[in-house]
Amino acid sequence: MLSVDNLHVSVDDTEIIKGLSLRINLGEVHAIMGRNGSGKSTLANVIMGHPAYEITSGVIKFKGTPLEEMEVFERARAGMFLSFQYPSSIPGVQVGTFLRKSVSAVRGEDAPSAREFRKELKAHMEALEMDKSFLSRYVNDGFSGGEKKRLEILQMLLLNPTLALLDETDSGLDIDALRVVAEGINSITPTAGCLLITHYQRLLDHVEPDYVHVMIDGKIVKTGGSGLAAELESKGYDWLEV
Amino acid sequence: MMQYPQISIPPRSQHLWRYTPWKRIHPTKVEEMPESDPIRFSSGEDSQMDDSEEIARSFIHAISKSCKKIVLKDETLELDLRCSGHICSGELNIESFGNSTLIIRISGDAGWTGLRIIGNVDGTLSMATINDLASDGHLLRCEDWFVGRDSELEFATLSAGGFLNKSDIRVDLTNRGAQLRAGIASNGYSSRHDDHHVEIKHSIGHTESSLVMHATCDDSSHSVGTGLLTICEGADGSDAGQVFRNLLLSEKSRAESIPELEVLADDVKAAHGAASAPIDVNQIHYLASRGLSREEASALIVEGFLMDAFREIKSEEVVTVMRTRLLVHLECLMNG
Prior knowledge:
The structure holds two protein chains of two kinds.
Chain A: E1 2-11, E2 14-24, E3 29-34, H1 40-48, E4 54-62, E5 65-66, H2 72-77, E6 80-83, E7 90-94, H3 95-107, H4 114-127, E8 138-139, H5 145-159, E9 163-167, H6 175-188, E10 193-198, H7 201-204, E11 211-216, E12 219-224, H8 227-235
Parallel strand pairs in A: 3-10, 3-11, 6-9, 9-10
Antiparallel strand pairs in A: 1-2, 1-4, 4-5, 7-8, 11-12
Chain B: H1 22-25, E1 37-38, E2 40-41, E3 45-46, H2 55-63, E4 67-73, E5 76-82, E6 87-108, E7 112-133, E8 138-147, E9 152-159, E10 164-173, E11 179-188, E12 193-202, E13 208-217, E14 222-231, E15 239-248, E16 254-263, E17 269-278, H3 281-288, H4 294-307, H5 316-334
Parallel strand pairs in B: 1-6, 4-6, 5-6, 6-7, 7-8, 7-9, 8-10, 9-11, 10-12, 11-13, 12-14, 13-15, 14-16, 15-17
Antiparallel strand pairs in B: 2-5, 3-4
């Protein structure tokens, strides 16, 4: 579903990703771990098409289509979703309005009616233990870290993507919130590919990855099963340095 | 009292007249006293208003044949002001008691409209004013508000109509515990010129005011926001803030924001700020990642930016009216 071949990415003429390849199939959960600055978030952002990043060589394809041919909104409509590490606030735009517009845009003709949408929304919000007063607040405006992450997961559940990129979704969450968010992630993974970017084992205690990749200096230097995350937790990254 | 046209024409060096001089907003030649058609008020009793030594107020007073009085007592009133003819004008006296809401909609195809309002607030008044005039009309709007002891004025304005607009709004917090929360949203498009001057005077201590003005500036529009915040001598314990923000949507648009402070008391809080910037690329990217095209994302950000001018307004009724009118206005613009 997602294929990344020999990807090189620069920001302001500084190369961040230096030859990275990766394949994610439907139903697979991949975790990428690595130190700060290793290029993990850059990978997520470049897949989603952030304009600050330049692909200098290599190809990313989603469902067989090179991403360079797709605008950001087209990627979303094709089934791609990024849970941002630092989601933007949109003052003055109520969460409820934003979610309705987003669901209409992404799900197109399959978008639910207003009544069905409310029902769906209510069910997901209850599952994520979110109060309905959220809907009248402005998007991410004055939200705590945990509230932002819950809103990201709520969007993911409503948009029902086939590829979910989750960039440090576990940061800023307490233990209970982590469990709730992990349940949300687990609910989509049977029908979607998932790329988790994280620093810690704790999210992977709740969402078991099929593959764990270690990223150092813009490259994947090791890939293993879920046991690799525990090994990193105890040994750190030094032993993987070339 | 000096009356129009004896009052001397104010120079552009004056803060109030810097960007929209009197000659520009006057409907004819400044020495003339043109005939005007009366604004048609949907309700109100016939009344009279005193003249003023301020040139714009005196001019509107001199040419107006219509003056109405509205008294609000724990109620909500929707007041339509229909403006038609080559030149149209009127005066409105508002007295509010208890907890009241007033929705004023200014509409019509008048070439030039002059509106003067004097309001007294005893209790809480939440009001929404919507400038929905035809896109080639001119508007001169002068308002004077007096907020009494432990009273609150919530003042929301959506400026979306008219081609050349000048608003001169003055609020005097005359007694302890008086509060003002003002939000102004101005949508600039085409060659629209929209000038808001807001003077807030803390005449006495332990009074509070906040002013938020948000202007979007597209095409070759010109937005002006000037504020004068005065905290009088002895008005200790006053708490005041004003902020002007402009969202620049085109290279040819212009925005001027000048908040001024005059603080003559010692123990006060007074803050002011101004910022102008284009749309944040990260906001666009975030919305695009949720399936919205660039145009859809920009439109939503503009809508949100304008609505955010009313974030201090507590009345849900007023905020809902503003949101509804703004959506209608933006949709009309989008559909040509």
